[in-house]
Specification:
alpha+beta, elongated, 11 helices, 9 strands, 3 domains, Arp2/3 complex 21 kDa subunit ARPC3, Heat Shock Protein 90
Amino acid sequence: MKDWKRTFLIGAIVALSSQLYWNVFVSGFRISSSVILLPILLMTLGKNVSTMQTCTVTAAVVFCFRLIIASSGFADFPNMALQLLPNAIFYLCYGALFASIIPNKHTISYGRLFPAMYISDFLSNIVELCIFESGQPDSLSLRMAGYLALVALFRTLLAFLFLMAESQYRVLLKKEEHENRYRRLFLMTTGLKNEIYFMKKNSEEIESIMSNAYRLYERLSDMDIPDEIKKMSLSIAKDVHEIKKDYIRIIQGIEQEISEEYDEKRMSFQDLLQILEATTYHILEEKPVHISLVFQCVDNFITREHYELMSVLKNIVNNAIEAIESDTKRGTIRILEHRDDDCYEFRIQDDGPGISPRHLPNIFKMGYSTKFDYKTGNIFRGVGLYGVKATVEEKFKGTIHVESEPGLGATFIIRIPVNSLEEV
């Protein structure tokens, strides 16, 4: 919003709120509630606008607004204008005092803000009353000054409390935004590390292919075959070697970006579950389902393998969501964790449609998937549960198996040795 629009908006708000007032002390002298809003608007909506400019425009808008309302005919304009002029001067005086005490609204502390609002309110009321009483200082008694001081204190206190509440609300919003960014970054890092794990496995296969291609060249060199074929086999080995180098550079680049952007060395399992719960509920908000999550951590632990563990749990939970979504669209997903002797056991349960006996033996196979994208016509990659099994067995040296009956849901049981997870 442009500055002039902000200025006129503040003036309009103050003018409307100025209609809520009390005639006290002196007949025709108003104590208005708009003065509660004025410092609030100066410190929020008008924070980037000159205080004097805002208060000048506010004085003009309030003066014109009250004149139109109070005047019953053109003959009344001069008298009404004279009666309303002190009130317009109040806003000019308020702006001048406020701007002189607070030259920079962005750096003011709350310790200086309260007295600045109070002084501006009290002295501006004194000036207004003096002008209203024809500029005779003798008409301002100590008793009336005390009343004005109490009114200024009350209005300043309300405005100050509102500004404090608004400040705390902004802090909470920033904290929530920071936590959301942290969760998104953690999950993004988890996904990238999972992909890097498979890329490293693929690089080992590329190494094996390169070795085989070179051995083929060596054997062909001992045979009586055309040199073109020998050169072709050597060229294949060189090309595979270049592909491997590029592959490794990509892995190193991704790992470097991850370490610079997010470098959380360790995490408790309880915190991991909280992140998984929050992000899963966020996903569920966008789906036409009613799914409850029950995550229970009996034996908490600190681990350096939080990315891999999150990847395992997140994959299984997402599969459970998709299973329930394809069936009744209502259900419960549970993650139950406890320590059993030298292993941590994780049970991920859902009450979805279960896994059919025909699919059950194949769910951990690479490339096997029953999920189909009707929009694109593509079958999913089928690396989710394969990756889960590979991580559990190869990375954690643990075990995973699934129990399922059609119509009764599925339970994944994962057992991981303590020394594979726990921070020593």
